[in-house]
Amino acid sequence: MSIFKAAIFDLDGVLVDTAKYHYFAWKRLADTLNITFTEEDNERLKGVNRMKCLDIILEIGGVSLGAEVKLELAEKKNNWYREYIHNMDKSGLLAGAEEYIHKLKSQGVLTAIGSASKNAKAILTRTGIIEAFDVIVDGNMVQNAKPDPEVFVKCANLLNITSDKCVVFEDSQAGIAAAKAAGMKTVGIGSEEILCEADFIFTNMLEVELPLF
């Protein structure tokens, strides 16, 4: 039996296959600005909020824009992203994700979403797993982006669980850093090279087995 009391999941790239849609939307925006934006560049955007992502892309292109224009561009990107995810359904879940969450629930582990996405609830609804989570904290509920620990601290507070009893599942360096700053255990989902600071690393959710800690 696992000793952790709560599991907090990032959404994009951990439970659902939406990371590609973010990349498509950001690349589409970068193209309109004549900025070369690659999949390698996109790694810097994982786990980061929308405005910070835009700042990174502008930095890559050496472009400086005013606050009002940046807000318009960020909204344009989000509209494109929402177009891409509009037809998502259960097939958008990553392999093993739903099964693992239900396994945790059957063992009495609390579950939460801690995501920078402002579309998290819509995605969870479309993929049919929103009811599996006790708490959902998304980009509409926090001020500070990962690696700031705010999103995970808020999850723990809403779950009424201390940080040391939480484990965070993340696919980004920023997310792992945020979880560690919150005093939580970490499981990296993805590349060992990128997620080397995590306590455990698995290629995907199919590989994750209980107990972890």
TrEMBL record:
Membrane-spanning segments: none
SUPFAM superfamilies noted in UniProt: HAD-like
EC number(s) on file: 5.4.2.6
Xref: Pfam families: HAD_2
Keyword Oxidoreductase: no
Keywords, in A-Z order: Carbohydrate metabolism, Isomerase, Magnesium, Metal-binding, Phosphoprotein
Necessary cofactors: Mg(2+)
Catalytic activity: beta-D-glucose 1-phosphate = beta-D-glucose 6-phosphate
Domain of life of the source: Bacteria
Transmembrane helix among keywords: no
Family designation: Belongs to the HAD-like hydrolase superfamily. CbbY/CbbZ/Gph/YieH family.
Protein's name according to its UniProt entry: Beta-phosphoglucomutase
